[in-house]
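Before relying on records like the one below, remember that each one covers exactly one chain. Contacts with other chains, cofactors or solvent are not represented anywhere in the record.
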Amino acid sequence: MVVSKIHALVAFLLVLGSYAMPAQAQDYPTQTIKLVVPFTPGGPVDALGRVIAKRLEGRLGQTIIIENRPGGGTTLGAKMVANAPPDGYTLILIGPNLAYYPVLFPKLDFDPEKGLLPVATLVTWSHVFAVAPSLPVKTAADLVAYAKANPGKVAFGYGLATMPHILGESFIRETGIDVVHVPYRGGSQARADLLGGRIQLNIAPVPQLLPLIRDGKIRAIAYTAAKRSPDMPDVLTMSESGFPQIGYHPDVWMGIFAPAGTPAAVVNKLNKDVNAVLNSDEMKPVFRRYAYEAFVSTPDEFAKFFASQMKKWPPVLKAVGLQPQ
């Protein structure tokens, strides 16, 4: 008799638990949400996070705080979120960096495909190749010709293990030019040194360099997207310049992930509201300002895309010679 009562109680608790989680998920969110950005404040990813969070707050009815967690090539922030409770209240904004981990951090005790759950894609963007005005080149082809005629005279500055680093290495290896490599911890110091004449070549997202380009302080020579930038209509794409293999269409994508195990109802709600923000008219001028392309998907579509990215990037990084950090 006692045993049967215990069995009945266990069955009741199991049924109760099965109803509790969906109910909690349906009520989501009921408290502040933390969006981790594993990059320094002031950069393009940080700006994106703050813009999206502000609009998403209105739809979710809860505050979203941005927590910058740079370091470890984004691994510190990613591991923190993967280890957080899977309840939808700790999220991360990140992109292809996750696919770099197997090459750059082979000893990392963290698998992003197992630890993180794709929630919603946000945007993609491309890059501009820019040179110091003192360099007598106006196109990517001019740069190749100059560098071959003046080996070791062009210094290429980049943030270590970033997309500009990958793009630059791809370009250098494809063209066979001899340049001086100058790695930095981030892109801002590289841009300062480009202005100061200590380096002659830099690669960055358009918004970071556009004011300097318009002021004539640096010169844009190529754009990595499939089409020309509306902000730089006279600047040739890499394909038009004769280097169609430079650029990854997109170079960078960004999305929101949650800890693995987050309820599907929470993921679906977040995805629906993020997509509504991306499709809203108020976001169009924001996208133009930052040269973003909206990237809308379902959770399943994002999961498939993420799996393809995890396969795509390791061979690319190895091909351009990036080494474990």
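The chain is about 45% helix and 20% strand.
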